[in-house]
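Render this sequence as a predicted structure.
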Amino acid sequence: MAKRVAIIGAGASGLAAIKCCLDEGLQPVCFDKGTDIGGLWNFKEEALPGFASVYRSTVINTSKEMMCYSDFPIPKEYPNFMHHSWVIEYFRLYAENFGLMKHIRFHHHIDHVQPREDFRETGQWDVTYTDEENSKTTTGIFDAVMVCIGHHAYPHYPRDSFPGIDDFQGKTLHSHDYKDHVDFVNKRVVIIGIGNSGGDIAVELSRHAKQVYLSTRRGSWVLNRVSDHGLPGDLLFSKRSQLALFSLFPFSWMEKQARDQLNRRFDHALYGLQPEHHMFAQHPMVNDDMPNRIITGALIIKPNVKRFTKTGVVFDDDTSEEDIDVVVFATGYRFDFPFIDESVMKVENNHTSLYMNIFPPSLDPPTLSIIGLVQPLGAIMPISEMQSRWATRVFKGVEKLPSQGVMLSNIRMKQMIMSYRYYKSPRHTIQVDYVPYMDELAQQFGVRPNFKSLFLSDPALAVRCYFGPCTPYQYRLMGPGAWKGAKEAIATQWDRIEHPTKTRAVSRAKSGGIPRFLKLLILFILIVAVLIKLF
């Protein structure tokens, strides 16, 4: 009889978990307290407690070829950077194609997840859930649990950190509750926090409000979605060849190159955005329009808010702004799993101990996984899928985890590396680098591309994979779950990238750059260098 797996959440991570359970012959039962799939990406007109949700204008920060599930390319007609309505439509296509909907129970919330008394022998769980349509509470027995609720459901709202806020006569809200600009027209607005949400909201409101001030304690480096030659930026910084090249140089040199490139677009110091920390010590903001709004005066960058007055705010530099109508706290989120028994895992100040960001190291057997609890500089969907592919094989018993001691040592090492690289903040506890983390996960169950054999068996494919973007299809070329369409998906990925912008036929002007034969020579030298390194 197939093992039953309880999956909590039917968003981007939950859908991947269902699919991976089916691939491994497990029986998934997915619970979602909402009415539809999509989680964060399912736009709601009102912000509901305990539900993550985007705002009306949200566009995803990762391009479609980097964010798709590894065996289901996004249609070529879809834009490279998708509005949330396109993202949810892709999820519907994915769920329909693989028959996922019949495994989901909507209007069900989870009350408690705890190990059964015979857990050491069976690895089983008592999962208590409530059907909200009839208020019926049930406890079911499951062989494994996959928690897929993300980390954008519980707002971090530090009102107590700001003296005078209780006397402020204007309106305050968290960015979780922001939906659109309508209630902000002709208002004077202060936004506290400079993450992606703070940047998006500040830019949007600067087109409708009387004046917008963006308050930041540390500043931020700002990345563009659109990079050289109009291509999606994440395609360019996710190349294995580029990462290998950077590894040959000192960190300080690499950081300076990245910083100089960003400052060529606009001088971060001149615009009041430059942080004191180095380029890689913070999760950067992705925003195409911020410098344009600053240079027109519609958006003004200010230091941290020191205190509130009855009608305004005073900043750390003792400047002030009065007649403020609204203050938006774009201060991020805290993650929590209140339904998981405390004997299994605890979360304190956005810290928890998970092996590879997935498995509580004390569990034996390891039949509970946390999926999607990462903050990558890149897309979450392929990462959640990769985590699910590995976790389901662990549940099935065909893959083994190392000893508890090895797992704890790995956790401590990762935490030490993170504390060395990032400035201390609750937002920097689950950071991962996309390609290295995907490769590390893939290596656990044999799906990381073997470039030595790939260069020998299919040199053209090897070149595309090594010198091109590390798209998710690469992890379906070999090993468990290999997909026959992976090679074709890699060969045609640039067609899907170019298709949505080629809406008017034009003739390309001849390039006056490097001659083609010289480009081929450089490529040949690079390939030889890679082969020497591999062999």
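Summary. The two ends are 46 Å apart (CA to CA). The chain has a mean pLDDT of 93.
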